[in-house]
Design goal:
By secondary structure, the chain is mainly beta. Helices cover 0% and strands 49% of the residues. The strands form three sheets. Strands 4, 5, 6, 9, 10 and 11 form a six-stranded antiparallel beta sheet that branches. The chain starts with a strand and ends with a strand. 31% of the residues are buried. The model has no long low-confidence stretch (mean pLDDT 94).
Length: 124
């Protein structure tokens, strides 16, 4: 069993920055990702990091603005978000997969466990 707890969400103005945190407890994971879901839209993969390799990947919409990182000693995963835009407004979720294919990272069914989400409203 794995438990994920997100924190760090909150209102921010366009152009601003925010860092989301995800505390991971329980079994060891293979992949950790951040997803987001805006009202009326499908859940979208934002960024992924491999636990062992540290390899990362990003959605095209956030490349160059968002950075995913991990601190394995603290079992924490972070999402640094810079130059936020109104279209980044969404509920953000962290998710982990105990055994997964990296190439399928954008697919929600890849992940076994999800956090409860943290809201990020970006105002113009």
């Amino acid at each position: 069993q794995v438990q994920l707890v997100e924190s760090g969400g909150g209102s921010v103005q366009a152009g601003g920055s925010l860092t989301l945190s995800c505390e991971v407890s329980g079994d060891i994971y293979n992949l950790m990702a951040w997803f987001r879901q805006a009202p009326g839209k499908e859940r979208e993969g934002v960024a992924v990091i491999g636990r062992l390799t540290g390899s990362t990947n990003y959605a095209d919409t956030v490349k160059g603005r968002f950075t995913i990182s991990q601190d394995k000693s603290k079992n924490m995963v972070y999402l640094q978000m810079n130059n936020l835009k109104p279209e980044d407004t969404a509920m953000y979720y962290c998710a982990c997969a105990s055994s997964a294919v990296y190439s399928r990272w954008v697919n929600p069914p890849t992940y076994n466990y999800w956090g409860q989400g943290t809201q990020v409203p970006v105002s113009s």
